[in-house]
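ESCALATION

Customer reports they have been waiting on this structure for their group meeting. Please prioritize. Original submission:
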Amino acid sequence: MQRTSLKSDPCPVARALDSIGDWWSLLIIRDAFDGVRRFGDFQRSLGVAKNILTVRLRRLVTDGILEHTNSREGNAQEYVLTAKGKGLFPVIVGLRQWGESHFYGQKERHSVLVDRDQNRPVRRLEVLSRDGRILRAEDTFVRKIGS
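Update from on-call: job pushed to the front of the queue and completed.
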C-alpha cells in the first residue's frame, strides 16, 4: 500500500501526523523522553523489528525530531531529541493522561509521570483560553483557511 503524504495538507494535525502518526514513532519519542538513546535499547524496549525501527528512526531524524550524536564514549551513535522533538512533550503527556483515563480500570496499576522536584504526579493537562479559562472542545472552533 502506498503511503499518502500529508505534508501539504492545510490542517496542522494532518501535517504533524505525516511525521509522527504511527504508533512506533510515538513510542520511540516516548522512550527518548525516558532517556533511551541507542538503537539496540530502542529495539529491546519496543520489541520492534530492526527494519521497522531503522525506517522510523531515519524518518524522525529527517523530520528534525531526533538527531544523531556520538555517544559520550565515542563508540556508538545515539539519538537525542531536538528542540522540535522536545516540543512533543505535551503531546506525549496528553496521550498518557488520556490512556490513563480510558484504558485502565479504576484500581488498575500503571506507570505514573512524576514531577522531579516535588516527587508528585503531574497535574492533568488543560486547554486554556488566553484569559486562563478552561476550554472544552465545544468552546472552540477551527477557523479554516479562507473563512
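Sent to customer with the following note: Strands lie at 66-70, 77-81, 114-115, 120-121.
Escalation resolved.
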